[in-house]
Amino acid sequence: MADTKLTVGDWMTRNPITIGDDASIVEAIHLLRERNIRRLPVMKGDKIVGLVTEKMLLGYMPAKATSLDQWELQYLLSKTPVTAAMNPKPHTVKPETPISEAAKLLHDRKLNGVIVAGPRGELVGILTTTNALEALIHFSK
């Protein structure tokens, strides 16, 4: 059976859009909106240092934000690094992880996506809930 497609590597989104760890929260929000995506691996060179989602970014408010007006808040967020809002220990899977195991992780942890890392921990893709649903549709035919 040549068309088995049973691993994460068969279904993941390859070469995902990333952002550097020196980027600001505002830059990350703009990149997400510009590319119509919901999550960004945060990179320091070629090393994965975290994951940031649209929800994390839009929900991030610095401690001193309470007394700021809209313009001051915008300025503060433009100077705040994306690392302040990211998850520094995102869930990861390998390309050879069975798709069913990754789908169970997404379900059990209530995740919308996981980073796919290669043998040296390098970023090779992202597996999203949408990717997992595409696999389910494929196997339901």
How would you characterize the overall build of this protein?
- It is built from 6 helices and 7 strands; from the N terminus they run αββαββααβαββα.
- It is an alpha/beta fold and 141 residues long.
- It is elongated.
- Helix content is 38%, strand content 21%.
- The protein has helices at 8-11, 25-35, 54-59, 70-79, 99-108, 129-140, and strands at 13-14, 19-20, 39-44, 47-53, 92-93, 113-117, 123-128.
- The two termini are 15 Å apart.
- The strands form 2 sheets. It has a 4-stranded mixed beta sheet with strand order 1-7-6-5. The chain has a 3-stranded mixed beta sheet with strand order 2-3-4.
- The mean pLDDT is 91.
- The protein has one domain (8-140): CBS-domain.
What is the C-alpha radius of gyration, as a whole number of Å? Answer: 17 Å
Flag low-confidence runs: none
Mean pLDDT: 91
Helical percentage: 25-40%
Main beta-sheet strand count, sense and barrel state: 4 strands, mixed
Q: Could you name the CATH topology?
A: CBS-domain
| CATH-defined superfamily | CBS-domain
Distance between the termini: 15 Å
What are the salient characteristics of this protein?
4-stranded mixed sheet, CBS-domain, 3-stranded mixed sheet, 6 helices, 141 residues, alpha/beta
Tell me the layout of helices and strands.
Blueprint: H1 8-11, E1 13-14, E2 19-20, H2 25-35, E3 39-44, E4 47-53, H3 54-59, H4 70-79, E5 92-93, H5 99-108, E6 113-117, E7 123-128, H6 129-140
Parallel strand pairs: 2-3, 5-6
Antiparallel strand pairs: 1-7, 3-4, 6-7
